[in-house]
Design a protein that fits this description.
Distance between the termini: 19 Å
CATH architecture of the largest domain: Alpha-Beta Complex
Strand order of the largest sheet: 1-3-2-8-10-9-16-17-13-11-12
CATH topology of the largest domain: Amidase signature (AS) enzymes
CATH superfamily of the largest domain: Amidase signature (AS) domain
Oligomer: single chain
Helix content: 25-40%
Length: about 500
């Protein structure tokens, strides 16, 4: 039996029933990587010897009667997580020999749950791109079309899942880095509520792994089904045992509803700052139709929705002021000179990005105060709605673009070009206030590329968008393996019905 595209839930059931061993699952996953990853380039740091040893240990544990949440399931880990004995470079050439001595807290949780880690997945330089390519490990291709990006910065993890390289992966999200690759590759991802899952050990080298409370950035699960997302989130959720974990454990509330008919959903497909491409709009409409057909209460607008232009501006300010905080002093002075030359009436996102790069602490505090007002606005909206459905980016996966000057790049939305980073406005809608958001497949473009949407939920009610994702998966379908010519081996194994 072929196991590489089965869900983690199915693998666990088979392991418990004695239908397969972890060694067999691991060997098959490694064989798939060795066969197909030359085309995809998702696994940048394989760890096959230790994976086989962990699989043997999982089988022995199960024979003793143990049963842990992920016991014996093959998984992957994003390169930016520390794993003892493996390089953690964030794809920065100057740190190619950086090998941490301890596992990140989330890697420790994976191992404690019994998962078998196959290796680490590719990322962009410093995690700062919507694509995944770098000087050390090369380019990760989209499994559906190798001429296109798999997304970033968790692009290697999304491509690995779409290719059958492990049942689960863990990634991170600051600018859509979980959701965008899931959207581009046709898989599932969940950006948890800010602060829900500990991030220690997900740190750029050579910084020490400390229990720091990050702003905007989260770590989260990726999978091929919605139920698997919740399975992995249960393992990942919880405070750092060195700080808040001393005082409390996490007990997430149940989803607000169990039936599609009971959900109240706001559906958005237009943003004032960037157009939505036809393929993505069709994906949003498909989800809206499924909600309506299932009896959910669906609205297309609400006066309670926080202002989208101000939300995008605040997100841009918070994101870029933090991104450049560690720039060398001389670079900072160059940015200050450029920002001073901007016209007072220039309020576009490019100008907002540049001004944010030279924010003072006073400037940041003002932006943070406005963020709190937006958070209050979202609380009021979620008193009337249970979730918001909207795009993740305006387009499906775009062709590889390795222009080193990111400000020179453009994104093409149905023939109209926009600055490259303008496509982040939809991802920022959930990130800026710290809301949970689940990325789900919502169909394919006319060219056959995956299209996803995100389900934004109330803060610390992560089970609500996850439950909605599961219900929608039943209505509109979910992951489908890529077709012939991209992953020929996987295609033959899965059969003609999965193209």
């Amino acid at each position: 039996m072929e196991w590489n595209f089965r869900s983690a839930e199915e693998l666990l059931a088979a392991l418990r029933a004695g239908e397969v061993t972890s060694v067999e699952l691991t060997d098959e996953a490694i064989a798939g990587i060795e066969r197909d990853d030359e085309v995809v380039n998702a696994i940048c740091v394989p760890d096959f010897d230790r994976a086989r040893a962990a699989a043997r240990g999982a089988d022995r544990a199960r024979a003793r009667g143990e049963d842990r949440p992920l016991l014996g399931v093959p998984v992957t880990v994003k390169e930016c997580y520390d794993m003892a004995g493996l390089p953690t470079t964030w794809s920065m050439p100057q740190h190619r020999d950086h090998v941490p001595a301890e596992d990140a807290v989330q890697v420790s949780r994976l191992k404690a749950a019994g998962a078998v880690v196959l290796g680490k997945t590719n990322v962009p330089l410093g995690l700062q791109d919507i694509q995944s390519f770098n000087e050390i490990h090369g380019t990760t291709n989209n499994p559906w079309d190798r001429t296109r990006t798999s997304g970033g910065s968790s692009g290697g993890s999304a491509a690995a899942l779409a290719s059958g390289f492990g049942a689960l992966s863990i990634g991170s999200d600051l600018a859509g880095s979980l959701r965008t690759p899931a959207h581009f590759c046709g898989v599932y991802a969940h950006k948890p509520t800010l602060g829900l899952a500990a991030t220690r050990g997900m740190v750029a080298p050579p910084a020490q792994a400390l229990p720091v409370d990050l702003d905007l950035a989260v770590v989260g699960p990726m999978a091929r089904t919605a139920r698997d997302l919740e399975l992995l989130l249960e393992v990942m959720a919880g405070p750092d045992p060195l700080t808040h974990g001393i005082a409390y454990d996490v007990a997430l509330p149940p989803a607000r509803h169990g039936r599609l008919a009971d959900f109240r959903v706001l559906v958005l497909d237009e943003h004032p700052l960037i157009a939505t491409g036809a393929a993505v709009r069709a994906g949003v409409d498909r989800v809206a139709d499924a909600l309506t057909d299932g009896g959910a209460r669906v609205a297309r607008r609400s006066p309670l929705l926080p202002d989208l232009t101000e939300a995008a501006t605040l997100y841009t300010q918070l994101l870029f002021s933090g991104t450049v905080a560690r720039f060398p002093v001389e670079a900072h002075e160059q940015l200050r000179t450029r920002a001073a030359a901007l016209g007072v009436d220039d309020r576009g996102l490019d100008a907002t990005r540049l001004r944010a790069m030279v924010f003072s602490h006073h400037d940041w505090l003002q932006a943070n105060t406005r963020r709190e007002l937006h958070r209050h606005g979202w609380r009021q909206l979620f008193a009337e709605f249970d979730a918001v459905v909207c795009p993740i980016t305006p387009t499906p996966a775009f062709p590889h673009d390795h222009d080193p000057d990111l400000m020179r790049r453009r994104v093409d939305v149905d023939g109209v070009e926009y600055p490259y980073f303008d496509q982040l406005v939809w991802a920022g809608l959930a990130t800026m206030p710290g809301l949970p958001a689940t990325a789900i497949p919502a169909g394919r473009s006319p060219e056959g590329l995956p299209v996803g949407v995100q389900l934004i939920g109330p803060m610390f009610e992560d089970r609500t968008p996850l439950r909605l994702a599961e219900l929608l998966e039943r209505e509109i379908g979910g992951f489908r393996a890529p077709g012939r010519g991209v992953l020929p081996g996987a295609r033959r194994a899965r059969g003609a019905g999965h193209g």
